[in-house]
Amino acid sequence: MGVRDELMEHVPRLRRYARALINNRDLADDLVQDTLERALRHTEKFQSGTDLRAWLFTIMHNVFANQARRAGVKAVHVSVDDENISEREFAVQGTQTQSLEMRDLDFALQRLPLDQRQVVLLVGLEEMSYADVAQALEIPIGTVMSRLSRGRERLRALMAGAQPGAKLQVVR
Amino acid sequence: MSDQQTPITEDEIHAYVDGSLAEHRREEIDRLLERDEALATKVSDYFSLNSMFHDRYDRVLSEPVPQRLLPPEPKRWRAAANWPQFAGMAAALVLGVGIGVAGMTGTMGHDTLMPGSGGGSVQRASYAVGESFARQSAIAHVMYAPEVMRPVEVGADREQELVQWISNRLGTDVRPPVLTRSGFELMGGRLLPGDDGPVAQFMYHDAKGERITLCISHRKISSDTTAFKLYQDGSVNVFYWIDGDFGYAVSGAIDRKVLLDLSHDVYSQLTAMGGAKAPSGASVSTQ
Predict the structure, then answer these.
(1) Between chain B's N and C termini, which has fewer beta carbons within 10 Å?
(2) How far apart are CA A17 and CA A29, in angstroms?
(3) Mind listing the pLDDT tens digit for each residue in B106-156?
(4) Which of the four CATH numbers 3.40.50.1000, 3.40.50.720, 3.40.50.300, 3.30.200.100 does domain B72-272 have?
(5) Taking CA atoms, what residue in B is nearest to A109?
(6) Does the CB of A20 have a partner CB in chain B at under 8 Å?
(7) Which of B59, B62, B279 is the closest to A44 by Cβ?
(8) What Cα–Cα distance (Å) separates residue B237 from each residue in A72, B21, B129, B259?
């Protein structure tokens, strides 16, 4: 199977990760789109036999870093504008408590520094090995571990502090 | 932190949560968790975080992929998006194949090789055109694949000449894809007369001497990309598809799955550059 076909298989997971990272449907899909376009322009740079997923995440992070740089901090602290959608979905899926808890998660994640958020999500959501995360983010594995540790502790504190019913007005 | 006085490191706690810790260390942490309540809470929180990520975001996996995430060349991209369904489709086609073969035996008799069946065929729907192209490719495969003396007109040892000749005759740049990764070496190629002008036939063989052929036709009319279709004639399977003004058919008397993989390979190489070209880096080894 060629790189292009394999690429398509990764699209749903790229979207899931981007959504968790940015928490804004359109901007997350923009990021995936830019990632795919860049990957397609550079398929020859992909070394077959290596991990395509890690390669794609590397591209995504470079694209994202560029975008964030261009847009300033705002791109990182994008607000939760698909809140209405999620409420609708969770009305079907679960109880009100769960819904609040889930929104706490969105909120807490967005409060996490980007470098910690990336690692926490790649490990926890994408279930990547620490070595793959190091490869994808082009950082040493020790840095992966320290970001993971700080990120998880911070998330935990944020979640504990966010009381259901408390004002979860979203970052600007 | 509460676990600092223990020999277990922070990294190991995370590896424990993420399921990548060695068994004996895992057991040690299990024992520790029974004694150390703070650590137990922390570990449980970490587990919850991971499962909350999935609860919250896995729904994205089942969302339909929006059109704009389908690649820049819409026609080709749509076809690529269909790939994962091909395996299922090939299986589904097996039913239809029996009918196709039965219906075809009648025409087999008076169908000469790549007959120029007149302008009427150009008007037919692309599906029908594709099917007749597949049939012709199957016949051409049966004709030339067993050939001992002269299976190809120009051998792979004269690849430049082959490419030039075929490109000239088809009126477009045509390069045989490289299938060495799938275990097939280019033997060479020939030109055949087809409904829609000349058809290029490239022949490949594997280490066991099994031969497959790839037919490329440069069609006069352009149509939308079709999905892979399977055509079967006796022992010969043909996967064929239309992409704009090109028709492709991969034929072989080999396992259908292997042939499908080869077709994927052909497809991705030929579409990588657009049109009937392989990536420029993919020059054919003339070994």
Answers:
(1) C
(2) 10
(3) 333 333 333 333 333 333 334 455 777 888 888 888 878 877 777 888 888
(4) 3.30.200.100
(5) B53
(6) yes
(7) B279
(8) 57, 48, 18, 8
